[in-house]
Design a protein that fits this description.
By secondary structure, this protein is an all-alpha fold. The protein is about 80% helix and about 0% strand.
Length: about 325
């Protein structure tokens, strides 16, 4: 088959698959787009992994158009956002980028999509975040009474519930991105698409400017927590971005510590690894601070080029 004809045919097939999914989802009142969100990027992943960004953008535009025709506004957001994830993931496969970079990029986009979904609920559909927090506060108080658990008076329960809500939302997006990654690899291998080789985790290193942007997000988060910003939807947006920044720095801090383990520790590495993950949950700001230093300083270069990993590779 002629290559241009094949591009058009496969592009039409991918758009058709998404269109059928939209029609079924509309009949089920958005159930599929909310429960099977990790499946939505797959058609775009396949097409973008085989063809250039220019060709893939044409298919993406078609998906955007039919999203407004065949689905409700909130479902259209998920279809478009997941198509973006599929486009970015597939283009990474097309360019044969590192597997870890593709996965982390997908996880970041997945977390942002879930956060934006919350912001859209707050801004467009009239669902106030404070009302959701109050409903969860009622359930929380009921559980505490049933379990006879006392909460210290100096703990701001509403703020704690708000933080848990955003962090759990981000983890949901990360888990969905992980499932999308696994399904994409299975799909592309079955279709004999060339996959980039896997590389060790310690070789991943983001640009330094990401660390500074994340610190600004953390500062905004602390600003909101101090009660200095109470206007919606800006409170929700800043809290969401700040929570995401903290989570990203914590993840980079964990990666930085895991890379550092072979340099100084020769035994009981499994126990130390477990301790690092425990610290990430119990002292997230400390791990986030190390994550910032790991991104913006030369710690990574010294470990990889001069430390254990360099000597091991030699």
């Amino acid at each position: 088959m002629n290559q241009d004809v094949r591009k058009i045919t496969e592009g039409a097939m991918m758009v058709g698959l998404i269109g059928v999914f939209m029609l079924i989802d509309r009949q089920l009142q958005g159930t599929l787009s909310s429960m099977l969100v990790f499946v939505l990027p797959l058609p775009m992943v396949y097409y973008a992994s085989k063809y250039s960004m220019r060709d893939s953008l044409m298919v993406f535009v078609a998906i955007v158009l039919i999203s407004f025709l065949f689905s409700n506004p909130f479902s259209a957001f998920f279809f478009i956002a997941e198509a973006v994830i599929g486009l970015v993931y597939g283009h990474g496969i097309y360019k044969q980028e590192e597997n870890q970079k593709i996965l982390l990029r997908t996880m970041v986009l997945g977390a942002l999509v879930e956060i934006l979904a919350v912001v859209i609920n707050v801004a467009i559909f009239g669902v106030k975040l404070d009302e959701l927090v109050q409903e969860m506060r009622v359930m929380f108080d009921t559980m505490m009474k049933v379990g006879s658990v006392a909460i210290p008076a100096n703990v701001d329960i509403n703020m704690m519930i708000r933080n848990v809500f955003f962090v759990s939302t981000m983890f949901l997006g990360i888990l969905e991105a992980g499932v999308t990654h696994m399904l994409s690899r299975i799909l592309l291998k079955r279709l004999h698409v060339k996959m980039p080789p896997s590389q060790p985790l310690y070789l991943y290193y983001p640009p330094k400017w990401i660390g500074y942007v994340a610190v600004v997000g953390v500062a905004g988060y602390l600003y909101v927590n101090g009660g200095r910003l109470t206007v919606e939807p800006w409170t929700s947006i800043v809290t969401a971005l700040g929570s995401f920044s903290i989570l990203y720095l914590v993840c980079m801090g964990v990666i930085g510590l895991l890379v550092l383990i072979p340099v100084f520790i020769k035994a009981n590495r499994g126990l130390i690894t477990l301790l690092i993950f425990v610290l990430a949950f119990t002292m997230p700001m400390v791990i986030a601070l190390y994550g910032f230093l790991y991104i913006t300083s030369n710690i990574h270069d010294r470990i990889v080029k001069e430390g254990y990993h360099a000597t091991k590779n030699e």
